[in-house]
Fold Respiratory nitrate reductase subunit gamma.
Amino acid sequence: MGDYLNTLVFGYYPYICLAVFFLGSLIRFDREQFTWRSGSSQLLRRKQLRLGSNLFHLGVLVIFFGHLVGLLTPIAVFDAIGIGHGFKQVMAIVIGGIAGVAALVGATLLLHRRLGDPRIRANSSVNDNAVLILLYVQLVLGMATIPISLGHLDGHMMLNFMAWAQGIWTFQPNAAAHVAGAHWIFKLHLFLGLTTFLVFPFTRLVHVWSAPVWYLGRRGYQIVRTRNGNGRKPV
């Protein structure tokens, strides 16, 4: 029963989540572009939003790309450039820990702001609150994995997670076996991470696809004109 459940959750569930993630995002963009936004409430309690949002987004971006590179880069690449498994484990703990603290503090501010202010709470949907709580719990679980990782500084556990993630992307049928012996906190962390991809197309998280990275390479400045259209203040 345990092997069957492990295969179901970490062998088949990832493909369901990724399929919904990509296809759901595409369908929503095609059919519901009006809802393709973050739904900002920045006019209310702006200072707390600015601090919380900056900490949260900075931390989450570091964590996301850290997981992306750390899990999906072939082990042979790290071996070829001389990065040992133990060193990689320590770097993941240090960098991930700092980013996790920043994201968790930011998420705490955002959650307090959204649930503690009656005006913002009245303008928040159940969906908005649920996804923020999901991300908050996921961050807490991520931080909870650090003490466990400190007991495995040889990097062996990290190799198992890399083998699992790369096995999923390369459609290996036995990928789930690599995480069968992992601590339950790691398993819950993986499960919630996959679930985040599953619910992604149905939440405000879709605005991630519209991140204005092209602003970094654009030419010139944005021209803003006054109401009379000639660039001068009306008399």
Notes: The radius of gyration is 21 Å. Residues 2-217 form a domain with the Fumarate Reductase Cytochrome B subunit fold (CATH 1.20.950.20). The chain has a mean pLDDT of 85. The CA atoms of residues 42 and 49 lie 7 Å apart.
